[in-house]
C-alpha cells in the first residue's frame, strides 16, 4: 500500500512541474495557433543557464528563476517580433517546422557552448527528502512543485484579472473582434509568446535540479508536453493542469507497476488516441477545421 | 514514346550537347586507371621511417557515453606520449587521429569507414561500449583491419566469426561478475544476502553481466525479488527506488554505465532505502567522478568488478598511473583509461613482433600469443574472446581496494553490510 | 505572339533531359573511378536521401500533408529485411522488396486511421508514430533483438569493389522513385492530390474521394523507402533501434525536399544532393556535432525565406525576367459561341422535363430537403428548413444575408454535416454520403467566392473533377485524351480558352467565376447549385451566363440559384423560394413572390412594393432596378 501511495505522491509532484512547463506551450497555441516544438529546448537552455549560474555564484537553482523568468520573457518577446511574426497566418505544419528548426538550433548551440555531457545542479537539499511516516517527499521535487503552483496561480491571475491578460484571451477567441476594440494583434501575440516562454524560465530552473539533462534532452520534454496539452485540450490552461497531473500519475504508475520501458510510450499513445478520437481533448474547443469537410 | 522522343532530340539545345560532351571528356581525362589501394605495396607501409604511424580512433566524446569515452581518450593519449618518448614503434612516431562519434552508432560506422578508406590510417583502435563497437568492428572486419577494442564485452560481439577482432580485457561480460559471485559463495550460509534485486540498463554489455550473476546467485539460493530492464535514456530512478524500498532486497546489483549508477544511488537516498550490499557495473570505476556524483561518504562499501587496479604490479602500471597523474592534475585514472592503454599496448606489441604493418600477420600473431599489459597477461581464442579473470573491487574510506580474488587482494577487510546513506 | 502552351511544354522535356544527363553521368562515374570508395559512399547516402525525399514529396509535397515521421518507413524496411534474412538465411537484398511491402501495408493501415485529421494534428501524429516505433523496436526483443541490434553478415563480394553494388542499387532505386513520382503526378491521382493540398473541401466537392487519395498517396510514399531500407540494412551490416527511428532522419528528409522545392518533381532531387553533400561537408569541417546546428539553422532559414524551395524560386525569378504577353479574355468568342452539348446523365432528365412540360403528373423532385437544421454554437443558421427543387427547373433561392442560404448549400453538398433533417437527390438519400459521392451522383456547385486550385493551370483545374468512383479513372493521365478535349471545349464555351496554361491564381475574379462554372460542368451534373453566379461579372456576360443556364436547362440540367441580382432572378428562375432566418418563408412563381407582403417585409423592401394604383402596372417598378444586398 505504501508503495502505491508513494508512487501517487511522486506522480503528483512531478505532474505539478509538468503542468507549469506545459502551460506555456498551450498558451502559445491557444493565442496564435503556433505549436512551439522548441518549448522543450527553451527548458533545457534555461536549465543549462541555471546550472552555470549555480556553479559560478552558488545561487540556489530554484531561486534563480527570479532571474531566468524575466530573461525568458524578453527572449520570447524578441523572438516573436523578429522570427515568429513572419509566419503568422501560415499553416500549422509550417510553424512546427520552424520551431523544430529553432529547437535544433538551440540544441546545436548548447552542444558547442556547454558540451554534450550530462549536467545536474546539486544544491545541498538535492538528495534529501521530507519524511511523513514512511513516505518520502524528495525536497527538490517539493520545492519545484511549490514554485510551479505559485507561477501557475500568478499566470491565472494575470490572464483573468489584468487588462493584458484579458486582451490575450480576447485575441485568441476572436482576433478581428479584438482588433475592433483596440487590441493590437501583433503586440498581444508577442506578449502571449513572451508569457509562454517565461514559464519556461521557471520550468527550466526547476528542471536543473530534478534530473540530469544534456542538450538533446529536449526531445524527451517536448514529447511529454505535447502529450499533456493534447490530452488537456490545445489552448486550455485548466486542461494543461489536469492533463499534466493525469499523465504524471500515469507515467509513474506505469513505471512502478508496469515496466519502465513502456512508460514513455504512454505519452505517445495518449497523443494518438486523443487526436484520433477526441481531437479537442478534455477541455479544448473544437476547431472549425475539424468540423468542416 | 517515339514521337516524344524525337521531339526531345530536336529540342535538345546545342548548348546541352556541348555540356554533355565536356562532361564525358572530363571523366575520361580524370579517370584513366585508378590504383587499387587495396593492393599490397600501396601507401600504408613503406612510407619511410620518418613518417609517423597514424592510428585512427573514434570515441564517444559527447553523448550518453561521454564520461567513459573521455577517459578512454586520455588513456590512449598517455600511451602515445609514453611510446613516443621511448622512440615510437618500429622507429616511427605514433600519431593518433581521434574523432567523436557522439555515442551514435551510425556516426561510428561512418567515422571508421572514413578513417580507413579516406584518411587511410595505418592502424585502428576501438571505441567505448559494446553498443558502438558492434558496428565499428564490422567495418574493420570488412576492410581487413585488426580491431583491438578496450571495451565491448557483450557475448554477441564474438559470435560473428570475425577474425580481426580482439577484446583487450580479461573476460567477456557473462564472466565479469564471476569473482563477485565467488565472494558471496565464500560467505557462510547464514551471512549471505537472502534476497536480491537486479535493475539493469538496456545495454548489450550490462545485461549479460547482471543476467549471468542473477542465474548464478539463484543457483546458490539467493531469492530474486525484483528484476527489470530500464531504457538507456532513463534519468528518473525514483520509481525503481520506490519499488526496491518496498521489496527490501538485501542485495542490489545494478547493470549501470555511469549516469544511471549515480542516479540510482541518489534516488535510494531520497527514498531512504539502505541495502546490505550494493553492486554496480562500470559506474564505480570512474574514480573521482563517481565519488563526486554520489558523495564520498556514500561510496563506502560499493562493490564492482574491474579489469584493472591502480596498485597492481603489472608491467608499466606504475608508470602509467604516474604519467596520467602528471598529465591530468594528479587525478587517478579510471578503468576505461587503463583499458584503452592496454588495448594500445596489445596492438603495439603485435606490430613490433611482426616487424611491419601487415594486418593479416598482426591478427595471426595475436591469435597465437599472449601479450603482457597493465591489466595482466591477455590472450584470445579464435573468436577474439579473452581468457582471463576480473578483479573484485570495493570502495573503502574514499579509496578503491581490491578484495578478490584473494591472490591479488590489497586488503583483507571487506565492508559488509554496507553502512547507511549519509 | 508567343504561345504559352509551347513555353510550358518546352520547359518540361528540358528538365527531363537535364535529369537524364545527370543520371548518365552518375551511372558512368564508378566505371571511371572505381576506387573512390569515400565519394561513392557519400553518394550512396545522398541517393538514399533522394529516395526518401522524393517519396515524402508524394504525400507532403503534392498533397500537402506534412509528415515528420517518414524515416520510420526506412526503419521498418530495414528491420523487415534484416529479420527475415536472419531467420531464413537468405541474403537481405532479396528481402528488401518485402520490406517495401511491409512499409506499404503499415502506411495503409495507419493512413486509414490517421488521415482523417488535418493540419497540425497530422504532423504531431506522425512524430508520435515515429517515436512509438522506436520504443517498440527497442522493447520488442523477441522480434527485433532490442538494443543489441541485428548484425548482418558481411557482403560476399571482394573488397576491391567495396560499395559499388550498393551505389548502383541506391541509384537504381532513386531513378525508379523519381519515375514513380512523375507518373503519379501525370495521372488524375496527382492532380487530385494537388487539389487536396490547395483546397481539400473544394476537391471533395468536385468528386475527389479525398480519403482514398490521401491513403493511396501515403502508401505510395512508403514503398520505395521500405525497399531502400532493406538495402540500407545490408549496407550498414548493423541495425540498431534508436538509430533506425530517429527524428533527425525525418528532419533531414523534410529539409531536403523543402530546400529543393516541395511539391515539384525535381525539387526533392536537387534538395537531396544539396543536403546530402552539405551534411557530409559539415561533418568533415565542423565535426559531427555541428550537424544538428546546421540543420536547425537551415530549416529555419528555408521556412522563413525560401518556403517554396530552390527550384520554384528560380523558376519564378526566371519568369519575372522573361514575361510573356498578357492574354485577354475572348469576350466576343464567349458571346458568340454556340450551344454546348450536354451528354449522358443529364439526358436522362430530359425525358422527365419533357413529361413535366406536357403536364404529366410530377415525377420525383430532383432535390428534396426535409427539416434540415444546423447550428454553430449559439447561432442557428438553418432552422428546420424544407425545400423542393423540381427536376428540370431553374429554382431561385433568395433572401437576406445571414438567412442561411449558403449554409443550406453546404448541407446539401456535404461540406457540413446537418444536425438534423434529410436530403434527397432524385430519390436517393444523400445526407449521409461524403461530398464526393454526391458529386458522383450528379450534384455540382459553384461558390460565392471562387475556389479554384490556384497553383494549377486552368486546364488542370478543368480536369481535376472526378466523375466517378472507379480506381481506373484515378489512374488515368489527367491532361490527355478526350477529357482534355472536353475541357477545352467547355473553356471555349465560356471564352476562357486562351488561358488554358495559365495558373488559375493569376486570373481575375470574374474570369475565375467563368472557369469555375465550366469546371463543374465537367462532372456532367444533373443538379447544379449556383452560389451568386452573377456577382463580379460584367453585365453583358451576365446575360451570357443566363443564356448558358437556360441552354443547359433545356438539355435537362436542373439548377438551384442563389442570387441577389433580382432582375436576373425574376427573368431566369421559376419557382422562387424565399429564405429568411434559416427557413423558407415563401415559394412560388416570380410574379407572385414579387408581390407577397411577407417577402417584401423580410427581404425585397419597399422599392419593390407595387404602387397602390394598378394603373402604374407591374412594369414600373423595374425601372428602379437596384441591387438589394
Structure report:
The complex is a heterotrimer of chains A (293), B (422) and C (629). With 293 residues, chain A is mainly α. Chain A has a single domain, classed as ABC transporter involved in vitamin B12 uptake, BtuC (Orthogonal Bundle), CATH 1.10.3470. Chain A has 13 helices and 2 strands; from the N terminus they run H-H-H-H-E-E-H-H-H-H-H-H-H-H-H. Chain A has a two-stranded antiparallel ribbon. The longest helix of chain A has 31 residues, at 2-32. In chain B, helix 3 crosses helix 13 (335-354), helix 4 runs parallel beside helix 5 (130-143) and helix 13 (335-354) packs across helix 14 (359-368). Chain B has 14 helices and 14 strands. The termini of chain B are far apart. The model of chain B is unreliable at 1-16, 29-33 and 37-48 (pLDDT under 50). Chain C has 629 residues and is of the alpha/beta class. Chain C folds into 2 domains: 48-247, no CATH class; 331-625, Rossmann fold (3-Layer(aba) Sandwich), CATH 3.40.50.300. Chain C is built from 27 helices and 12 strands. Chain C has helices spanning 4-32, 37-62, 71-88, 92-114, 120-139, 141-144, 164-186, 188-198, 200-205, 210-236, 241-244, 247-260, 267-286, 290-305, 310-321, 331-336, 345-357, 405-413, 435-440, 458-463, 471-474, 481-493, 509-521, 539-554, 566-572, 590-595, 597-604; strands spanning 150-151, 238-239, 367-376, 379-389, 394-398, 420-425, 428-429, 443-445, 527-531, 558-562, 576-580, 583-588. Chain C has a 6-stranded mixed β-sheet, with helices on both faces. A 4-stranded antiparallel β-sheet of chain C has the order 4-3-6-7, covered by helices on one side. In chain C, helix 2 crosses helix 12 and helix 7 runs antiparallel to helix 10. Mean pLDDT of chain C is 83; it is low at 344-356 and 613-629. Chain A binds chain B through residues 2-3, 6-7, 10, 14, 111, 115-118, 126-129, 131, 136, 138, 210-214, 216-217, 220, 252, 255-256, 259-261, 264, and chain B through 62-63, 66-67, 102, 202, 228-231, 233-236, 238-240, 242-243, 245-246, 259, 263, 266, 269-272, 295.
Amino acid at each position: 500500500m505504501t508503495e502505491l501511495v508513494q508512487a501517487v505522491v511522486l506522480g503528483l509532484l512531478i505532474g505539478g512541474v509538468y503542468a507549469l512547463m506545459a502551460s506555456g506551450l498551450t498558451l502559445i497555441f491557444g493565442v496564435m495557433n503556433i505549436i512551439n516544438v522548441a518549448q522543450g529546448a527553451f527548458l533545457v537552455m534555461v536549465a543549462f543557464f541555471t546550472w552555470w549560474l549555480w556553479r559560478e555564484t552558488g545561487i540556489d537553482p530554484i531561486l534563480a528563476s527570479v532571474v531566468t523568468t524575466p530573461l525568458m520573457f524578453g527572449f520570447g518577446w524578441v523572438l516573436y517580433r523578429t522570427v515568429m511574426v513572419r509566419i503568422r497566418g501560415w499553416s500549422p505544419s509550417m510553424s512546427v517546422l520552424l520551431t523544430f528548426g529553432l529547437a535544433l538550433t538551440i540544441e546545436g548551440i548548447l552542444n558547442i557552448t556547454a558540451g554534450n555531457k550530462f549536467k545536474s545542479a546539486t544544491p545541498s537539499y538535492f538528495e534529501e527528502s521530507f519524511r511523513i511516516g514512511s513516505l518520502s517527499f524528495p525536497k527538490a521535487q517539493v520545492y519545484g512543485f511549490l514554485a510551479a503552483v505559485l507561477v501557475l496561480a500568478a499566470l491565472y491571475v494575470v490572464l483573468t484579472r489584468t487588462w493584458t491578460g484579458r486582451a490575450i484571451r480576447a485575441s485568441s477567441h476572436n482576433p478581428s473582434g479584438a482588433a475592433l476594440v483596440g487590441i493590437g494583434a501583433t503586440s498581444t501575440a508577442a506578449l502571449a509568446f513572451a508569457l509562454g516562454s517565461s514559464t519556461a524560465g521557471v520550468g527550466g530552473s526547476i528542471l536543473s535540479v530534478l534530473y540530469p539533462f544534456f542538450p538533446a534532452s529536449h526531445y524527451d520534454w517536448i514529447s511529454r508536453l505535447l502529450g499533456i496539452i493534447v490530452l488537456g485540450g490545445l489552448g486550455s490552461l485548466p486542461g494543461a493542469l489536469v492533463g499534466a497531473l493525469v499523465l504524471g500519475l500515469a507515467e509513474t504508475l506505469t513505471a512502478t507497476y508496469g515496466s519502465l520501458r513502456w512508460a514513455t510510450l504512454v505519452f505517445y499513445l495518449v497523443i494518438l488516441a486523443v487526436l484520433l478520437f477526441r481531437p479537442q481533448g478534455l477541455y479544448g474547443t473544437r476547431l472549425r477545421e475539424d468540423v468542416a469537410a | 514514346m517515339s514521337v516524344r522522343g524525337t521531339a526531345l532530340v530536336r529540342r535538345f539545345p546545342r548548348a546541352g550537347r556541348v555540356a554533355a560532351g565536356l562532361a564525358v571528356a572530363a571523366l575520361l581525362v580524370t579517370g584513366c586507371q585508378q590504383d587499387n589501394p587495396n593492393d599490397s605495396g600501396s601507401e600504408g607501409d613503406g612510407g619511410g621511417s620518418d613518417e609517423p604511424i597514424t592510428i585512427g580512433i573514434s570515441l564517444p566524446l559527447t553523448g550518453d557515453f561521454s564520461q567513459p569515452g573521455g577517459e578512454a581518450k586520455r588513456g590512449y593519449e598517455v600511451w602515445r606520449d609514453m611510446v613516443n618518448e621511448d622512440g615510437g614503434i618500429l622507429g616511427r612516431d605514433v600519431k593518433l587521429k581521434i574523432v567523436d562519434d557522439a555515442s551514435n552508432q551510425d556516426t561510428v560506422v561512418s567515422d571508421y569507414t572514413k578513417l580507413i578508406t579516406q584518411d587511410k590510417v595505418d592502424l585502428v583502435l576501438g571505441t567505448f561500449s559494446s553498443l558502438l563497437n558492434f558496428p565499428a568492428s564490422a567495418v574493420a572486419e570488412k576492410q581487413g583491419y585488426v580491431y583491438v577494442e578496450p571495451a565491448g564485452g557483450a557475448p554477441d560481439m564474438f559470435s560473428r566469426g570475425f577474425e580481426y577482432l580482439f577484446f583487450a580485457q580479461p573476460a567477456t561480460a557473462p564472466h565479469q561478475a564471476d569473482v563477485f559471485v565467488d565472494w558471496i559463495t565464500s560467505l557462510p550460509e547464514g551471512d549471505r544476502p537472502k534476497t536480491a534485486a537486479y535493475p539493469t540498463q538496456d545495454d548489450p554489455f550490462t545485461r549479460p553481466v547482471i543476467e549471468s550473476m542473477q542465474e548464478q546467485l539463484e543457483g546458490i539460493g539467493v531469492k530474486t525479488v525484483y528484476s527489470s530492464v530500464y531504457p538507456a535514456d532513463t534519468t528518473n530512478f525514483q520509481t525503481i527506488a520506490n519499488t526496491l524500498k518496498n521489496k527490501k532486497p538485501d542485495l542490489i546489483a545494478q547493470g549501470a554505465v555511469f549516469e544511471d549508477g549515480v542516479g540510482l544511488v541518489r534516488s535510494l537516498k531520497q527514498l531512504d532505502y539502505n541495502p546490505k550490499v550494493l553492486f554496480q557495473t562500470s559506474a564505480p570505476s570512474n574514480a573521482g567522478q563517481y565519488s563526486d556524483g554520489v558523495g564520498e561518504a556514500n561510496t563506502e562499501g560499493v562493490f564492482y568488478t574491474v579489469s584493472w587496479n591502480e596498485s597492481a604490479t603489472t608491467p608499466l602500471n606504475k608508470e602509467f598511473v604516474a604519467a596520467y597523474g602528471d598529465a591530468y592534475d594528479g587525478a587517478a585514472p579510471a578503468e576505461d583509461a587503463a583499458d584503452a592503454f592496454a588495448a594500445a599496448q596489445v596492438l603495439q606489441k603485435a606490430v613490433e613482433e611482426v616487424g611491419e604493418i601487415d594486418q593479416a600477420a598482426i591478427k595471426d600473431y595475436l591469435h597465437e600469443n599472449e601479450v603482457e599489459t597493465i591489466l595482466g597477461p591477455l590472450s584470445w581464442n579464435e573468436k577474439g574472446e579473452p581468457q582471463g579473470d576480473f578483479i573484485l573491487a570495493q570502495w573503502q574510506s574514499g579509496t578503491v581496494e581490491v578484495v578478490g580474488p584473494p591472490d591479488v587482494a590489497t586488503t583483507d577487510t571487506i565492508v559488509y553490510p554496507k553502512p547507511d546513506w549519509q | 505572339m508567343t504561345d504559352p502552351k509551347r513555353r510550358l511544354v518546352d520547359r518540361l522535356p528540358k528538365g527531363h533531359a537535364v535529369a537524364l544527363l545527370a543520371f548518365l553521368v552518375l551511372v558512368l562515374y564508378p566505371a571511371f573511378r572505381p576506387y573512390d570508395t569515400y565519394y561513392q559512399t557519400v553518394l550512396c547516402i545522398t541517393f538514399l536521401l533522394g529516395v526518401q525525399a522524393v517519396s515524402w514529396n508524394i504525400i507532403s509535397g503534392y498533397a500537402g500533408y506534412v509528415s515528420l515521421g517518414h524515416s520510420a518507413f526506412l526503419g521498418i524496411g530495414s528491420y523487415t529485411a534484416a529479420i527475415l534474412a536472419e531467420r531464413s538465411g537468405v541474403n537481405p537484398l532479396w528481402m528488401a522488396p518485402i520490406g517495401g511491402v511491409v512499409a506499404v501495408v503499415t502506411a495503409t493501415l495507419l493512413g486509414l486511421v490517421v488521415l482523417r485529421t488535418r493540419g497540425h494534428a497530422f504532423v504531431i501524429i506522425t512524430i508520435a508514430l515515429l517515436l512509438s516505433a522506436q520504443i517498440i523496436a527497442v522493447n520488442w526483443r523477441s522480434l527485433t533483438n532490442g538494443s543489441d541490434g541485428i548484425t548482418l553478415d558481411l557482403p560476399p563480394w571482394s573488397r576491391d569493389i567495396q560499395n559499388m553494388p550498393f551505389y548502383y542499387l541506391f541509384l537504381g532505386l532513386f531513378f525508379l522513385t523519381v519515375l514513380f513520382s512523375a507518373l503519379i503526378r501525370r495521372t488524375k491521382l496527382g492532380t487530385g492530390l494537388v487539389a487536396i493540398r490547395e483546397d481539400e473541401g473544394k476537391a471533395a466537392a468536385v468528386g475527389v474521394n479525398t480519403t482514398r487519395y490521401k491513403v493511396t498517396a501515403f502508401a505510395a510514399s512508403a514503398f520505395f523507402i521500405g525497399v531502400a531500407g532493406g538495402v540500407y540494412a545490408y549496407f550498414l551490416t548493423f541495425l540498431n533501434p534508436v538509430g533506425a527511428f530517429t527524428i533527425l532522419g525525418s528532419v533531414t528528409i523534410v529539409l531536403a525536399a523543402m530546400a529543393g522545392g516541395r511539391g515539384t518533381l525535381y525539387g526533392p532531387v536537387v534538395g537531396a544532393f544539396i543536403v546530402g553533400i552539405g551534411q557530409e561537408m559539415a561533418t568533415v569541417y565542423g565535426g559531427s556535432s555541428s550537424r544538428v546546428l546546421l540543420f536547425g539553422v537551415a530549416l529555419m532559414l528555408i521556412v522563413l525565406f525560401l518556403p517554396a524551395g530552390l527550384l520554384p524560386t528560380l523558376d519564378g525569378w526566371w519568369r519575372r525576367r522573361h514575361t510573356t504577353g498578357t492574354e485577354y479574355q475572348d469576350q466576343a468568342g464567349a458571346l458568340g459561341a454556340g450551344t454546348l452539348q450536354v451528354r449522358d446523365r443529364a439526358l436522362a432528365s430530359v425525358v422527365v422535363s419533357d413529361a413535366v412540360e406536357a403536364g404529366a403528373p410530377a415525377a420525383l423532385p430532383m432535390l428534396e430537403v426535409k427539416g434540415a437544421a444546423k447550428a454553430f454554437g449559439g447561432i442557428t443558421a438553418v432552422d428546420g428548413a424544407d425545400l423542393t427543387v423540381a427536376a428540370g427547373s431553374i429554382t431561385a433561392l433568395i433572401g437576406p444575408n445571414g438567412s442561411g442560404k449558403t449554409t443550406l448549400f453546404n448541407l446539401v453538398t456535404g461540406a457540413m454535416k446537418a444536425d438534423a433533417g434529410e436530403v434527397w437527390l432524385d430519390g436517393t438519400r444523400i445526407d449521409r454520403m461524403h461530398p464526393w459521392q454526391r458529386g458522383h451522383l450528379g450534384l455540382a456547385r459553384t461558390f460565392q467566392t471562387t475556389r479554384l486550385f490556384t497553383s494549377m493551370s486552368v486546364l488542370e483545374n478543368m480536369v481535376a473533377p472526378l466523375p466517378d468512383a472507379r480506381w481506373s479513372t484515378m489512374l488515368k493521365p489527367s491532361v490527355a485524351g478526350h477529357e482534355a478535349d472536353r475541357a477545352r471545349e467547355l473553356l471555349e464555351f465560356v471564352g476562357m480558352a486562351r488561358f488554358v496554361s495559365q495558373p488559375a491564381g493569376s486570373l481575375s475574379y470574374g474570369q475565375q467565376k467563368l472557369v469555375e462554372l465550366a469546371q463543374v460542368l465537367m462532372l456532367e451534373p444533373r443538379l447544379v447549385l449556383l452560389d451568386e453566379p452573377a456577382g463580379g461579372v460584367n453585365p453583358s456576360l451576365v446575360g451570357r451566363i443566363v443564356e448558358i443556364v437556360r441552354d443547359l436547362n433545356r438539355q435537362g440540367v436542373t439548377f438551384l440559384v442563389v442570387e441577389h441580382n433580382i432582375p436576373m432572378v425574376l427573368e431566369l428562375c421559376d419557382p422562387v423560394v424565399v429564405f429568411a432566418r434559416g427557413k423558407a418563408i415563401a415559394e412560388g412563381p416570380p410574379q407572385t413572390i414579387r408581390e407577397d407582403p411577407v417577402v417584401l417585409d423580410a427581404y425585397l423592401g419597399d422599392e419593390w412594393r407595387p404602387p397602390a394604383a394598378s394603373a402604374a402596372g407591374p412594369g414600373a417598378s423595374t425601372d428602379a432596378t437596384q441591387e438589394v444586398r
